[in-house]
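Cross-posted from the bioinformatics board.
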Amino acid sequence: MSTQPRRLKSGGRIDRSKPISFRFDGRSHTGFAGDTLAAALLANGVTLVGRSFKYHRPRGIYSAGVEEPNALVTMRTGARHEPNVPATKVELYEGLEAFSQNSWPSPKYDVMSFVNRFPKLFAAGFYYKTFVGPTRGSWMFYEKFIRRAAGMGKPTTEADPDHYEKAHAFCDLLVVGAGPSGLAAAITAGRSGLRVILVEDDTVLGGSLLAAGRDPKLADWLKSALAELETLPSVRVMTRTCAFGAYDNMTFALLERVSDHLVTPAPFQPRQRMWRVRAERAILATGMIERPIVFANNDLPGVMLASAARTYVNRHAVAVGRKVVVFTNNDTAYAAACDLNASGAEVSIVDVRSRIPAALQAQVAAAGITLHLGCAVGRANGGRHVRSVDVVPFDPARPERASVRTRLSCDLLAVSGGWTPTLHLLGQRGSKPVYDEDKAMLVAGTVPEGFEIVGGAAANCDLGFCIDSGAKAAHAAAAACGKPHAVSGRSLLEGLPDQGDAYGIAPVWMVPDPLGKGHGKKFVDLQHDVGADDIELAHREGYVSVEHLKRYTTLGMAADQGKTSNLNALGIMAGIRGKKINEVGTTTFRPPFRPISIGALTGPETGLHFRPIRRSPMHDWHEAKGAAITTTGLWLRAWYFPKPGESKADAYVREAAAVRKSVGLTDVASLGKIDIQGPDAAEFLNRVYVNGFLTLPVGKARYGVMLRPDGIVMDDGTTSRISEHHYFMTTTTAGAGKVMSHLEFLLQTAWPDLRVHVTSVTSQWAGMAVAGPRSRELLEKVITDIDLSEEGLPFMGVRQGHAGDIPVRVLRISFSGERAYEVYTPAGYGMQLWQTLCDQGKSCDMTVYGVEALGALRIEKGHVAGGELEGRTTLTDMGLGKMASTKKPFIGGALAQREGMTDPLRPQLVGLELAEGTGTLRAGAILCDPAKRYARTIAKDTSALIDCPPNPASKDFDAGNGSGHMGHGIGFVSSVTWSPELNRNIALGYVSGGMARKGEQIDAVFALKGELTKVRVTSPHFVDPEGPSWAFGCPSIA
Amino acid sequence: MLRIACPHCGDRDYVEFLYGGDAENAMPELSDTDIDRWTEFVFFRNDPKGEHAEYWQHQHGCRQWLRVVRHTVTHQVISVQPASEVDTPAQGKRVEVA
Ligand SMILES: [Zn+2]
């Protein structure tokens, strides 16, 4: 174990009584409670933490916050392995294990680092050129190499063992950020009694104050602010929580990292919790992010933002440098320089400005800091760490190449190029930031209604202004929410030190290379390895718009979304084009502000919780009998009931045969059921079904098909007339919800005058079908008070009665051809009726059958179902054209007459069978005209597919890619089964010309498997083909 | 992230609702067999930048179809009425069908 050689003897907001051991790349280290992983690594002298994305250049820790472009690590092992986590945002915990990325065998000795010597390979536009340019074929050559070389951390393929939660919250005021201005806002609003949620991404409150120097006044202010916050009951404080998205109507998304600072979540605790917050008002106190200046080798480990160096020294008591050069163009870096100096480092300042405020000059002179005015760092030198910097004379107004004036040795280069207010949430609401020439900042443009921007985010640099802006915004929010102005409470400006933080800056984006040889790469986007030369190249090649620049170079498109690079890129592009930044434009911000795990977005909706599950009242029976279960929509349904040793095919063939031979019982509880009542119910049904319903007598059922308003078939089912004004409709299982909403829509929007009520009763009724020649025999044993004779209950008849004590509704309809009944009973009686049928069925040779047998039976009969009702087919396509009434209008009737809908060449329902007795029938296969088969070959040189003239005789088609057929074909296979009745494979499908092709042999192509199967067109009514279809209520079937 | 104040159930999250499309065009009379008029109703949509009336069904609540006026830029909900209580919207001819 190392001994924290870089830890300062005193100071910092760390708990030295709580040492924490952790491992990085397998090596053990120790840090303290209050450290981030980055701080603890630096305390242990670990400055090289990974290799860069494209060039495998050594990289260190660049920042101390969410903006970190370099120090991405992989956290944890096994199923909890998580790549691309900024070490600056990882709270140190006992047992933490992290790994460097994109390097092998180690960041120090990385075998891929030779890539660095071939930067042309990865220049901007590389992907554009390899994919779309004249050299596009080269991708084949590069791909393998690039996939190995470039990249970030690799994800795990194991399932995430942790839980994630979703939660909702409401508040009057959401305050994002708990720095001085956010605290002032939350306290002021809390005093007024507003319901406040204060969100802070950090583990503790205080923001910039946590990194501020040793002035005890600041620490005291923070202490008393936090103390008062505790006393305000209406303020909810959420730490370790990032507000990552701002959406319409003042909705915000927060991610609370509940257990990221633990090895594993505590029992019953989630790893992360995603909040959806609805606020009346929002105050954004999100502060600012410091930006770098671009110069040669600015990516070397040991180069970091000045604010980060200050955070590590002041907050974490880490001596990040012993010999420090501070390179700046503005006043704020002087505080960092003084704090580094006070920590014992030897500090020099390089400032591009030739004149600085006298107070600053006096301050650094008193501290013994060397000052190089009118100079810039032109290049950093070093192998795996900065060893020295080359200082060149520099004029911000005329940046040009110059000779190196002096070389300063150092082990830390702290850079400040100015500050950028964090306006991402505002940007997500469509508010574009504008460039402020004086402050050299992108500042808020229009502020949307409901929002206030305060503190650093509002481009304030003075602490007093920041606090004041927070308090004022809170007053405004209170007024907007109708709450009284806070009457009590001390002024939050009390006790502040005299700071006089005027902010002087001379904007500089980039320092040109020093004269002479030995240039280094100048990085603008460190995370995506995009250099200044890439921006120049994009400009030369015409990609000058900001959005084009971004896509061409991939600048700002990495996980950090360019938090430290966007403005520098704009400044450099503006400089090349000789325009102002506001003329060049700014990029768009989109959620999330920082990367969010898929687990958090998914929340608990995984596995069994992915969606609701619906079970029939008889489901437990099916499971107890060992039924295989399948799903239809949300429903679990019994698929088949295997006897010991039976395969699926054995089972359903036996079940289907039993239905044809004696009697079968199956569960149809999942069918949609709608109760329709009212004096105008008949008229209503008559309008929604294509066939007539006005004449349906009481005690009769009728099969009906309804169309969508555009003329496409929506659903089918039966509707029974229970009494004069009372109907009972069934729909398909999958179509139930859609049909219900459709009926409600028509009644409420188009025909509110119709006196009809519709009620979904799907869950209220259990349903079971009793089918087969002996079905009546079975029902007669069970049902006590209904005359089931031919006259008592004729085909399509409906009766209500009892099975013993059990109320039943019996419909004599058939789904699959033979004599059959559907029996409905209130859901609570479902299991009892089912059991009664099973008990009595023993003496009738009854077999329970599942969905698979039901499917086989209906395909044999040519009855359309899910595969045929697929949202593109017309009534005529399904062979039911004659059902449509010509005597009355109905929904969909007008648009069903459109030219394309009545085209005789539309694919129409047919039966299909194997023409040569071999091959596989598959649902989804494309039906093709064998006369139009092409011979295709793959050109050896370019890999392109070459189409040859139609040549049905050709034997050398490429079976691997679609069998020589191209395009959409002439139809498709919709349902397939092995017919137990016919003892062979059969299928339903749609083919252009339909039954006119009867007897023709065509090709069924299943490109996914490279199969071509020859099939013959037949009637879709495989069983009882001459018998009328149930659609017309004919006795023989239905 | 819409919230819709259902006249029957109160202020509810949009996830409880089913979107039903344009509410600015009345359905033609069922007896009207004119393909153009039905085409207009079914397929042609105004896409205003601003206020737009549309149908939402409170599917996981009272199941009433509502006529919601929503601002298409800000997603602000301007008004909510039960669709059955709204007079049939005028037969606004907005697109000339050739
Ligand atoms: Zn409602």
